[in-house]
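FORM 12-B: Structure-to-Sequence Request
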């Protein structure tokens, strides 16, 4: 395969000198030296004291002067005592993203280094599990709101969700080079930020910030398995890193089973099931490129005898249509995995999302043998865990099936949750009678 980069080296062998930035960072403006002084409403102050990382525009009661994205805003109580400091963004309802609360601090390269070092320490043991693909920084939950960093072997993918980071990007990347260096650093911008060209200073989505040209596909390891990531064209930053622990659970229950992986994307669950000794694995995803990547990911792991011998069937079709067709064909599986994309991006979409989950549960159970295992996940933060799990059980009852729960799972260690709105992933493992 052309233009693929792979390294199995541990992070402790990376050398900071290899992180060689191009001139895109030197052209960025410096953050303003003038701080914005803010006061906020009592409810917002209570939430802030309890550790919430956002200040919304409607919560601001007093403001010293207008600010630009990336200005540092200092929040005081009614007695002019320091409460917090954060990144100001006049373009967003989340007007301030909190960096530091309770004790004053100077936000500079050293401050960023400390935050990045703390985040790296949380993930340090992952290298011992032959894992070189994981989330290095999980935004607000690691004290760095409005950005994430995913590591794929010797490539880092930095994704920004607010223009407030742009003036701080050079000092942040200097800190990153000291704490978690890599050969390649790719910048991703969320869709809204891509449209805010007046604040980007020639930065663009998918550009490489380091001098070396990044590979089009990156091979990395996860629990000893090899997967590929396309950090530019793939979903998220190229792979669904958050499901690593659930994939490992599927591996343990797949021996001698027939496994259906719905919304398979690039086949993460499928490869784990194959290594676990599944007799047959079927991967379904509407995207032909994703299915092609799933086939390649199986090939990347042919050195495992169980992967080499497994029958792997693929469908690049709509999941609902494939499940309905399999139901009409009375085709049954021992394990059915349903891991759909986010169905609810706003509160008003929650009801529709729950309806879709119920439909998927019924379709999934229609192709699941009695005594088989249902694995169903949701990544919609707008749908709370209780509603999600209740909808699955209700749908099972309506389908004349009863579910015996094996376990409910949430976020892996590299996706920590520090505030309520930060929680999004939930997954049910259950035996279907």
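FORM 12-B RESPONSE
SEQUENCE OUT:
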């Amino acid at each position: 395969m052309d233009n693929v980069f792979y390294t199995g080296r541990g992070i402790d062998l990376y050398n900071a000198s290899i992180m060689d930035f191009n001139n895109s960072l030197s052209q960025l403006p410096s953050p303003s030296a003038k701080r914005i002084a803010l006061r906020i409403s009592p409810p917002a102050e209570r939430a802030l004291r309890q550790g919430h990382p956002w200040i919304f525009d409607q919560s601001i009661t007093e403001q010293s002067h207008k600010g630009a994205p990336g200005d540092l805003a200092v929040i005081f109580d009614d007695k002019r005592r320091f409460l917090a400091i954060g990144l100001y963004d006049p373009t967003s309802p989340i007007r301030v993203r909190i960096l530091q609360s309770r004790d004053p601090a100077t936000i500079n390269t050293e401050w960023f280094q400390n935050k990045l070092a703390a985040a790296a320490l949380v993930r340090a043991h992952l290298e011992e599990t032959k894992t070189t693909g994981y989330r290095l920084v999980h935004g607000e939950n690691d004290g760095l709101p409005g950005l994430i960093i995913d590591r794929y072997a010797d490539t880092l993918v930095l994704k920004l969700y607010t223009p407030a980071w742009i003036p701080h990007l050079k000092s942040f990347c200097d800190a990153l080079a000291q704490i978690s260096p890599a050969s390649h650093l790719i910048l991703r911008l969320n869709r809204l930020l891509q449209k805010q060209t007046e604040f980007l200073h020639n930065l663009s989505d998918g550009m490489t910030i380091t001098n070396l040209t990044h590979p089009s596909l990156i091979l990395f390891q996860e629990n000893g398995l090899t997967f590929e990531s396309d950090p530019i064209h793939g979903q998220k930053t190229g792979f669904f890193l958050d499901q690593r622990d659930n994939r490992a659970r599927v591996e343990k229950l797949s021996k001698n089973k027939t496994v259906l992986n719905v919304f398979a994307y690039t086949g993460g669950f499928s490869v784990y099931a194959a290594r676990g000794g599944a007799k047959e694995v079927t991967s379904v995803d509407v995207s032909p490129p994703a299915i092609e990547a799933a086939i390649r990911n199986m090939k990347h792991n042919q050195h495992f005898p169980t992967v080499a011998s497994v029958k792997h069937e693929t469908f690049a079709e709509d999941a609902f249509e494939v499940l309905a067709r399999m139901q009409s064909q009375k085709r049954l599986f021992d394990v059915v995995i349903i891991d759909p994309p986010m169905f609810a991006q706003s509160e008003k979409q929650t009801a529709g999302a729950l309806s879709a989950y119920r439909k998927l549960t019924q379709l999934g159970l229609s192709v699941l043998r009695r005594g088989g295992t249902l694995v169903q996940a949701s990544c919609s933060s707008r749908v709370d865990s209780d509603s999600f799990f209740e909808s699955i059980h209700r749908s099972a009852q309506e389908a004349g099936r009863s579910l015996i729960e094996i376990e409910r799972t949430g976020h892996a260690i590299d996706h920590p949750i520090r505030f309520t709105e930060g929680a999004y992933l939930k997954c049910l493992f259950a035996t279907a009678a």
